[in-house]
Design goal:
about 220 residues; alpha/beta; four-stranded parallel beta sheet; 4 strands; about 50% helix
Length: about 220
């Protein structure tokens, strides 16, 4: 079920995009960006271009992605897929210890703690708030990965200290991609790495294995 993404509604976001007065004015105020947009190769969605049809526009891509989402899928279906797949299998969107426990019981090897950017359901907790209870419930039977809100290397440190195996990042590398292409992505990842290493050194940790919750202080 799609959430009520109010920011998209306020900005008039549609698929396909509709050019309004505000967006047109914003574009005209940036002639260099407009020139590069008009003279650069057309943006392609490489992961889905073979499946989204010959037109390969944003509308066809979104239609293809929508066809991949089946709201009737149950825990039993997921267990069957895991059995058939016989390989690493992660479920994304876990926000409670109970769901994490059930995911482990059906055989997942990875649990991705995520609230989908906080854009789906109002008032759900931040992933890092529920991370400790999920890590405790899983008890090492699956890898726990934090998704959402990671903007700095110190955010990665916090997640690892609370028991996450790794973090997922979206916006940092997308910002880098938009600003500088492949080089921008490499730069964004390099910034995260340098912040992580600097934070570790200032904490006095020589390895990630030394991180634990004792390095954190929580607001009361």
């Amino acid at each position: 079920m799609a959430g009520n993404r109010e920011r998209d509604l306020r900005n008039g976001f549609t698929v396909p995009p509709r050019i309004g007065f505000r967006s047109a004015l914003d574009t005209l105020c940036r002639p260099a960006w407009l020139w590069h947009f008009l003279t650069s190769p057309r943006i392609a969605f490489r992961n889905v271009e073979k499946h989204a049809g010959a037109t390969m526009n944003l509308a066809s891509v979104m239609e293809y992605i929508s066809r991949q989402l089946d709201p009737s899928v149950t825990w039993e279906d997921a267990a069957w897929i895991i059995e058939e797949w016989k390989g690493p299998f992660a479920i994304k969107g876990i926000l409670s210890a109970a769901d994490a426990e059930r995911a482990v019981q059906i055989g997942v090897t990875g649990i991705i703690v995520s609230n989908h950017g906080g854009r789906q359901l109002d008032h759900v907790p931040a992933p890092i708030e529920v991370l400790p209870e999920i890590v405790a419930a899983v008890g090492g039977r699956a890898e726990v990965i934090l998704d959402g809100g990671v903007r700095r290397g110190t955010d990665v440190i916090k997640a690892l200290a609370l028991g996450a195996k790794a973090c997922m990042v979206g916006r940092p590398y997308l910002y880098g991609l938009a600003a500088g292409g492949e080089a921008g992505v490499e730069r964004a990842l390099a910034i995260l790495r340098s912040e992580l290493e600097r934070g570790m050194k200032l904490l006095g940790c020589r390895s990630l294995a030394e991180l634990d919750a004792s390095y954190l202080r929580f607001r009361r």
